[in-house]
Design a protein that fits this description.
29% of the residues lie in helices and 20% in strands. It has 497 residues and is an alpha/beta fold. Helix 1 packs across helix 4, helix 2 packs across helix 3 and helix 5 crosses helix 12. It has 3 domains: 79 residues, Archaeosine Trna-guanine Transglycosylase, Chain: A, domain 4; 124 residues, Rossmann fold (3-Layer(aba) Sandwich); 228 residues.
Length: 497
């Protein structure tokens, strides 16, 4: 970059520091010169002109809050002198915009595993899913013991995904746990699934099988621990049956239109909306143009930018579902007597993000410019190619789990602070800055910080696309996969008995 200050939109009255800047430094901004009155940390904002008390602070071409005091040009703009404009429930109006993502003929291929129901997986693993937390350690022991004796080259591994729920839950929480686990059991990355229960839990095996529906019986085995003499011996026998069936399936070429990608960010910084999130948005547009599917969640991190997504809904019906999703999450906050429009993360604030509007305007860029084709409930599964919205919180592992349960084969996870987290599907960490990529090579899979060092977005999007295809084809593994970091978490909003 020619200057360490970036003005993202011509209407902005703040710029973002691309490196730590000392007080007294003079920098060119357009045809003028700006002298910094305070030190500006990297990723933080500096006033480009005098901003009056109560005047809007503009970034990304939109208000991200208002000044709580007069802010002179060259001053640091952050939580000490800016506050959100958001409050209360909002009224929305549908103002549809044309689809900005044009389809194109053909598209690349990747090597996947075709399933009997016509779905495609990018891994051929054995999954062990407990219906209840009481059998978590049994599931983990089975995964360890069977994984140790699994012949090389048969399946890609055996993994237990534990959780604390499945019993002592009431109403919607109980239904949510069952629905989420059933959706995970359908995931095509699992060549075989062993569902293991205790026998006296609320989430009964009979009820779970009903929730699973008309699933391919060859990919499933069910074990109720109280009903067998030795659950370990029985479980190992069932895993052997699943491994033999799954091991017979081989990769074969499939079109990229079969690929489903989840979009997530965590540990954001002031560069998230400049590098990694727009890059992932470009990836999403490219995937959708090729007939593929992307899915965006983290509803609280849409607050303040939700109208940008609402107006991209393909129909009035989808728009109404989007409004219901957003308002439903606001009501969830109010039901628990919590402030709706708050940016509580210390890491976000340290990285330069001040208000929820600012975070949301950066976060929603992961959805690119595509038309919203569906809005899914938490635990719902993808049905339509294109950009989908998924109801769920911003919590990293809860959101990653929900994206996987929806059917995402792989998740693009942008981060400015870094995280070792890995979900039950390949989780690609995309760093917002090159320093993080260099510092945490064992966590970060892709460096979006190159956008600040001369690489064009088109070049980096094409490279990320090829990387994801290589991961989908089994030619590469993510750092979380290599590290063995895999987990799930289920959303809870209710009474535990």
């Amino acid at each position: 970059m020619s200057t360490p200050l970036l003005r993202i939109h011509p209407a902005d009255n703040v710029a973002v520091a691309l490196e730590d800047l000392e007080a007294g430094r003079s920098l060119p901004v357009g045809d003028a010169c700006l002298t910094l009155s305070q030190p500006i940390p990297r990723g933080h904002k500096v006033a480009l002109a005098d901003i009056g008390e109560k005047a809007n602070v503009i970034k990304y071409g939109s208000p991200i809050g208002h000044a709580t005091e007069a802010i002179p040009a060259g001053a640091w703009v952050h939580s000490h002198n800016i506050k959100t404009n958001l409050s209360g429930m909002l009224e929305y109006a549908y103002r549809p915009q044309p689809n900005a993502v044009a389809p194109r003929a053909g598209g690349p291929m990747f090597d996947g595993f075709k399933r009997p129901n016509g779905d495609v997986g990018i891994r051929n693993e054995l999954w062990i899913l407990p219906t209840v937390g009481c059998v978590n350690h049994v599931a983990e022991a089975l995964a360890k013991r069977f994984g140790e004796r699994l012949p090389h080259g048969t399946v890609d591994g055996v993994y237990a995904f534990t959780h604390p729920y499945g019993c002592s839950q009431l109403g919607e929480d109980h239904a949510t746990t069952r629905r989420l686990l059933a959706s995970l059991a359908h995931h095509p990355n699992a060549g075989g699934v062993l569902v293991i229960g205790l026998g006296c839990e609320n989430n009964t095996m009979a009820g779970f099988r009903e929730a699973l529906g008309d699933a391919d019986s060859g990919r499933y085995r069910f074990l109720v621990s109280q009903q067998v003499e030795d659950e370990m011996e029985t479980g190992l026998q069932l895993l052997e049956e699943l491994a033999q069936a799954a091991g017979a399936v081989q990769r074969e070429p499939v079109p990229v239109s079969a690929l489903r990608v989840g979009l997530k960010c965590g540990g954001s910084d002031g560069l998230s909306g400049i590098t990694a999130n727009p890059l992932v948005g470009s990836f999403s547009d490219l995937l959708i143009a090729s007939g593929g599917t992307s899915v965006l969640t983290e509803v609280p991190e849409m607050f303040g930018a939700e109208t940008l997504l609402m107006n991209r809904c393909a129909t009035r019906e989808i728009y109404d579902k989007c409004v219901g999703m957003v308002n439903g999450f606001k009501e969830y906050f109010l039901r628990h007597n919590q402030v709706v429009y708050e940016n509580p993360s210390p890491g976000n604030k340290d990285g330069g993000i001040t208000t929820l509007e600012e975070k949301s305007l950066g976060c929603t860029q992961k959805g690119g410019c595509g038309q919203v084709v569906d809005v899914l409930e938490y635990g719902g599964r993808l049905e339509h190619p294109g950009l989908n919205l998924l109801n769920g919180p911003g919590n990293d592992i809860v959101a990653v789990t929900a994206l996987a349960a929806a059917g995402a084969h792989v998740i693009l996870f942008t981060t400015g602070r870094g995280t070792p987290l890995g979900g039950c599907v390949p989780t690609v960490k995309v760093s917002t800055n090159s320093e993080l990529a260099a510092h945490k090579k064992n966590w970060i899979d892709f460096d979006a910080g190159e956008l600040l060092h001369g690489t064009t977005r088109e070049e980096l999007t094409a490279r990320l696309f090829l990387d994801v295809l290589a991961i989908a084809s089994g030619q590469k593994r993510t750092k979380a996969e290599i590290n063995g970091f895999r987990e799930i978490a289920i959303f809870k909003d209710g009474v535990t008995l």
